[in-house]
């Protein structure tokens, strides 16, 4: 079993963000933890535990989990471990903004059981950070990493965003160089997408911003691929690279379709063909929790065709690839000839050029 806890609170909404967040000057930590533990209690008699009795990973995502009092994270982890066995060496991740990391918070997270931190760096360019509405500075990133390493949290991931509009005047190669110089164990590289109900969506609709074109997007993705391979990282999933032995175990569970429970507003849960998701907004989620009502907003059951589509997409997005028999011989030949894929041990594995066409190629799978 894998647990995800959605902590929605943020100091500010980033210009590109379409996630379920709640901008709060004061984080209602005790209320949040109480609601999460109440939801967790409701899962204790679910039959999914019969097939997946051990918790292998816990991931605190957001939002900005680092805005929550570390004692709250400790309280949740203590309860999770008391109710269900945690695997030896379980991966416990907290997403953090660099400006939230202090020597004290890092030590408190480690004492609570956290052994991995994902830092939302996004860029080292001051103009780009301001354009994104980020709350940290580039100078705070190495200080945060130093604090985490001194607290014995050595498994560190850095998030970066590529494909920014040319008007931002950010040099992607400079961001890559600065991130790699910090020697994190993991990197997540996300292409900027324009969502309608965001500041970026409004800027784009009014012509204030012109998104990066496909050529620029592809150039930056391939440049990142080459840089991380040269630096000794394994580009093991379309958006993720790691030092050997440091793949994100929690995210990898999603790509394997392993069972997972999501706690908190907007969190999703999945086991086999069953999916469900929670009430999206924090206040509505909390109010329902206080009234003892169901926190589930929707459910679905995947049919065989939907499972096959999901397996194809998830397989092709990783270095694990997809069984070759799932791809027709003419398509295999065309993909390999174009440099989009290779065949290894009876599996189709996409190259970086193939990953740029992931949606289209996955749609051609049997």
How is this structure best described in words?
- The chain folds into 2 domains: 2-255, TIM Barrel (Alpha-Beta Barrel); 305-362, no CATH class.
- The chain has 14 helices and 17 strands.
- It has helices spanning 29-43, 70-83, 103-112, 126-132, 140-150, 172-181, 199-205, 214-230, 249-255, 282-290, 304-316, 329-338, 352-355, 358-362; strands at 2-7, 9-10, 22-23, 55-62, 86-96, 116-122, 155-162, 186-191, 234-237, 240-242, 260-263, 268-271, 274-278, 296-301, 322-323, 341-344, 347-350.
- It has a 9-stranded mixed beta sheet with strand order 9-10-8-7-6-5-4-1-11, sandwiched between helices. It has a 3-stranded antiparallel beta sheet with strand order 12-13-14, with no helix packed on it. It has a 3-stranded antiparallel beta sheet with strand order 15-17-16.
- The chain is globular.
- The two termini are 30 Å apart.
